[in-house]
Write a structure and sequence with these properties.
Among the domains are: 184 residues, Calcium-transporting ATPase, cytoplasmic transduction domain A; 169 residues, HAD superfamily/HAD-like (Rossmann fold); 160 residues, Calcium-transporting ATPase, cytoplasmic domain N, CATH 3.40.1110.10. Helices cover 49% and strands 15% of the residues. It has 33 helices and 26 strands. The protein has a nine-stranded antiparallel sheet with strand order 13-12-11-10-20-19-18-17-16, with helices on both faces. Strands 8-26-25-24-9-21-23-22 form an eight-stranded mixed sheet, with helices on both faces. β10 and β11 form a beta hairpin. The structure holds adenosine-5'-triphosphate (ATP). The site of adenosine-5'-triphosphate has 20 residues, from α14, β18 and β19.
Length: 938
């Protein structure tokens, strides 16, 4: 078997939906010779014999007892999760960093020079850093593992004589899988029967086009890629239906074999992770430059070599933002968790950051912008008859009226139309009973609504279906926009019933003359203009249709039976979400398979279409060349009657304009567009597994508003990371400047090396990671999307640094110089300087929470994690000040409590200056808002 380039993602995918941890689930057994595909050439056996070998039954499936027994025997159908790293391994990893190496060198130098206390402190700091890092990494890993559990795959099986939906991890050898287009294959299985089955196996074999499959036995020597009678775990059904006998599960599957090969492979870094690593590298260069500067200045001043060396090393360490990578992992994990809580399951980490940059959301209509609660409200029959149907919901209550009058007597035209839609239909209508007191439906709501309409007209659904059994079918497909079923009547000959989009069905119709077709087109447009979803229905007697390809031969041969218009009300919350999008600089675009008029009417009701916007349908899009499309994109708000392939073209055109695109999708054919979009969004309820696997996000409620919520969280994550970067920068620059100023101005060193280390490693790590837990500021969706090339340290941040650091440096250095010149003992002055710097850092953490809102405005308790971190940091600092053993180690003296007050007041200047700047920002904003309002008011 070839280990394809896709193997890693395939294994990740399978781990994603088979959620067992080595620690929790029953032990995964070693490869069992009796079960592995390689040991049993299942493809060489007739399906009946395979069934016998696994004691299964193609019509009833396994019994629950047999499943339970086999589950115990074979273990769950899951790939082993990468073992959770043991505590001490994670701890050891913390020591594998250049920063720690530098600190070890510093400790060794300190020891060599006889500064045993300093050496002990440096080692203590290294250990504390490692322990904090281990805790934070564990926290990040636990969050990720919890999130993986959210995407469990469901499969359909035959058990106890009936169809059931079960979790893929509960599959056992001998289970009968029921497969249909869009399904993911949950285990390796031998086909029992297959109808027009095609399977996408690219992830396993590298074969880029779907492979057609059948149940015929093959020679034993047939290679994996040619086993046309087998389906494999982790692949997808792209067309057709099949039943298959599960032959191998979990680690015994073909993907399990790859999992063993790829064990230990790491998930690729997200673009933001790459940028942050790069950013870190620049800082390391800056740190080395700083080391050289301090050494040169210190030695030129004639300060003792050992002291200068230790301080230079500590300074170097202070510039390296060692907390940043962990802070970023936590930020992404927190973002994912918050998104999951709001119904958006993140399947690729990179989606979290890309979401914040989204500039266009291309959304399906049905179910995403509308409620997908269909009700047939109007019928059109030949001769221009229009029948209105009253009532909402699935209960068969609602009168049928024609021109305001109740229908009188039997109406053969009406009955022919309604019986056709009952037959060409896979839905079921269930009366109240058991625990439900209401009528419910199974299957596609579009089809269920047709059954309800038939029921209201008194059609006996069961009788009609019994009298005309189905002998062939062409399932609905969003490319042809039609569905057809062939039925044998009691009399014998076959009839084909076709229903679908009016343009598609009317193209097949003849017989009734051009005038009738003309009238039908006009009626369809009229209904679509009223926001109705329209279906046309036709039939062909004495005909049997086996495949979608057969539609091509039918032009002009079908007889039109009538049309039905369905209401699908827009979702109320979407209107709010659409205006939130606009305020956030994001353009919503509807991309629908429905008619342009229907799409435009609904888009207008939701605010997606504004003055000057227009709709374009698939045929018009086909006629536009790329330049015309690019030019027109500015005011196209609705793409209607588009084929899935055209969705890809729309995404690419938007991206060519520089847009960052989120695209929703649910069908098999949507996968390329979902994969191409910057953020592919699959529907959790109606979405196929193929669509979900191609998407970066799955939304559990299929709701547009959920996508908008996820965008907001994406922005929060990015903003929080920038808060951390700002915080780290301000602190480092303060220390560096105070030190350099002292060296240049001929003062003794204002801080001991261990004090610098303490501030940078212990205090900082208690705050940075907690800063990323900040809740949304509330104005994320009133800002423009984050530019793709946004700098991690942008101009606004540089401005803040430029305003803050002089204040902090003046406070710290000014105090140091003043106290020094007043003859205060050097150790006490150093301790006070050290304390002012720590205080500045604490105030700064509060500053960094928002760029424009006052700390007093959003309340000190809004981020409890940060307050906890601050409290811990204060307690630790108090220990260093007032606990004698630590005094000795950190070269500190206890500061008399009364002296603390001026220090706090001085350091708080950092807060006040920032509050002043924020006030100015708010004033400017309000002013410009006022300027906008005033002309409008006058
Ligand atoms: P969206 O892509 O926004 O969800 P949609 O659901 O209307 O829109 P499709 O599902 O591709 O898009 O449907 C396109 C058209 O096909 C519909 O307008 C309707 O006329 C027809 N149609 C939809 N469902 C069926 C079905 N089950 N059988 C026959 N025709 C259907």
């Amino acid at each position: 078997m070839r280990l394809s380039q896709y193997s890693f993602s395939l294994v990740r995918e399978c781990r994603c939906y088979c959620t067992v941890g080595r620690r929790r689930g029953p032990p995964v057994r070693s490869v069992n010779a009796s079960q592995s595909t390689q040991a049993h050439p299942w493809h060489a056996l007739e399906s009946g014999i395979a069934m016998e070998r696994l004691s299964s039954d193609a019509t009833t499936g396994l019994s629950s007892q047999a499943v339970a027994r086999r589950l115990l025997e074979h273990g769950p159908n899951a790939l082993p999760e990468p073992a959770q790293r043991a505590f001490f391994i994670v701890l050891l990893r913390q020591f594998q960093s250049p920063l720690i190496d530098i600190l070890f060198v510093a400790a060794a130098l300190a020891a060599a020079m006889g500064h045993w206390g300093d050496a002990a402190v440096i080692l203590g700091v290294v250990l504390a850093n490692a322990l904090i890092g281990t805790y934070q990494e564990g926290r990040a890993e636990r969050s990720m593992a919890a999130l993986r559990k959210l995407s469990t795959l469901q499969v359909r099986v035959l058990r106890d004589g009936g169809e059931q939906a079960v979790a893929a991890r509960d599959l056992v050898p001998g289970d009968i899988l029921l497969l249909a287009a869009g399904d993911a294959v949950g285990a390796d299985a031998r086909l029992i029967d297959a109808a027009a089955l095609a399977v996408a196996e690219a992830t396993l074999t590298g074969e880029s086009v779907p492979v057609s499959k059948n149940a015929a036995a093959l020679p034993e020597a047939t290679g994996l890629a040619d086993r046309r009678n087998m389906v494999f775990s982790g692949t997808y059904i792209s067309a057709g239906r099949a039943r298959a006998l599960v032959t191998a599960t979990g680690i015994h599957t073909e993907v399990g074999a790859i999992a063993r090969l790829t064990e230990g492979a790491e998930e690729p870094k997200t673009p933001l992770e790459v940028r942050i690593t790069q950013f870190g590298r620049y800082l390391v260069i800056a740190a080395i430059g700083l080391f050289v500067a301090v050494m040169v200045l210190g030695l030129a001043r004639g300060l003792p070599f050992s002291e200068v060396l230790m301080v230079a090393i500590s300074q170097m360490v202070s510039v390296i933002p060692e907390g940043l990578p962990v802070a970023m992992t936590i930020a992404l994990a927190v973002g994912m968790r918050r998104m999951a809580a709001r119904g958006a399951i993140i399947r690729r980490l990179s989606a979290v950051e890309t979401l914040g940059a989204i500039t266009v959301i291309c959304s399906d209509k049905t179910g995403t912008l509308t409620r997908n609660e269909m009700t047939v409200s109007a019928l059109w029959l030949l001769g221009g008859r229009v029948i209105d149907i009253a009532g909402v919901g699935y209960a068969p209550q609602g009168d049928l009226t024609e021109s305001g009058a109740a229908l009188a007597g039997a109406d053969p035209q009406l009955m022919a139309l309604l019986e056709a839609v009952v037959l060409c239909n896979d839905a079921e209508l269930l009366p109240p009973g058991g625990e439900t007191t209401q009528w419910t439906v199974l299957g596609d709501p579009t089809e269920a609504a047709l059954l309800v309409a038939a029921n209201k007209a008194g059609v006996e659904i069961g009788d009609v279906r019994r009298n005309c059994p189905r002998v062939a079918e062409v399932p609905f497909d969003s490319d042809t926009k039609m569905m057809a079923t062939s039925h044998r009547s009691v009399a014998g000959p076959c009839t084909v019933y076709i229903k679908g989009a009016p343009e598609a069905v009317l193209r097949l119709c003849g017989g009734d003359g051009q005038a009738a077709l003309h009238a039908a087109h006009a009626a369809a447009d009229e209904m679509a203009g009223r926001a109705l979803r329209v279906l046309a229905v036709a039939s062909i007697d004495n005909y049997r249709l086996e495949s979608a390809a057969g539609f091509d031969q039918l032009a002009g041969r079908a007889t039109l039976l009538g049309m039905l218009g369905q209401i699908d009300p827009p979702r109320e919350e979407v209107k709010v979400a659409v205006s939130a999008c606009r305020a956030a600089g994001i353009r919503p675009i509807m991309v629908t398979g429905d008619h342009k008029l229907t799409g435009m009417a609904i888009a207008r009701a939701l605010g997606i279409v504004q003055d000057g916007d227009r709709g374009v349908d698939g045929a018009e899009l086909e006629r536009m060349n790329d330049a015309e499309l690019l030019e027109g994109l500015d005011n196209i708000a609705v793409f209607a009657r588009v084929h899935p392939a055209q969705k890809l073209r729309i995404v690419e055109a938007l991206q060519a304009r520089g847009d960052v695109v989120a695209m929703t999708g649910d069908g098999v054919n949507d996968a390329p567009a979902l994969a191409r979009a910057d953020v592919g969004v699959a529907m959790g309820i109606t979405g196929t597994e193929v669509a979900k696997s191609a998407a970066k996000i799955v939304i559990t409620d299929d709701n547009f508003a959920t996508i908008v919520g996820a965008v907001e969280q994406g922005r929060v994550v990015y903003r929080n990371l920038k808060k951390v970067i700002l915080f780290l920068f301000v602190t480092s620059i303060d220390e560096v400047l105070v030190l350099l100023l002292a060296l240049l101005a001929g003062f003794p060193l204002p801080l001991a090396a261990v004090q610098i280390l303490w501030i940078n490693i212990v205090t900082e790590s208690t705050l940075t990671v907690n800063l990323v837990m900040d809740p949304p500021d509330g104005d994320e969706m009133r800002r423009a999307p984050i530019p793709r090339n946004d700098r991690l340290l942008d101009n606004a941040m540089l401005w803040r640094i430029a305003m803050l650091t002089p204040m902090a440096v003046a406070a710290t250095f000014g105090w140091f110089v003043w106290r020094q010149s007043n003859g205060v003992p050097y150790d006490l002055v150093r301790t006070e300087t050290f304390t002012i710097l720590a205080l500045c850092q604490w105030f700064n953490a509060l500053n960094c929470q928002s760029a424009s809102r006052s700390v007093l405005q959003f309340g000190i308790l809004r981020n409890r994690w940060l307050i906890g971190g601050l409290a811990l940091s204060i307690v630790l600092h108090a220990g260093v000040l007032y606990w004698p053993p630590l005094n000795a180690l950190f070269h500190t003296l206890p500061i008399p409590p009364a002296n603390l007050l001026p220090l706090v007041a001085l350091a708080s200047s950092v807060l006040w200056v920032e509050e002043l700047r924020k006030w100015g920002v708010r004033l400017r904003r309000n002013g410009s808002a006022l300027r906008k309002i005033l002309p409008a008011a006058s």
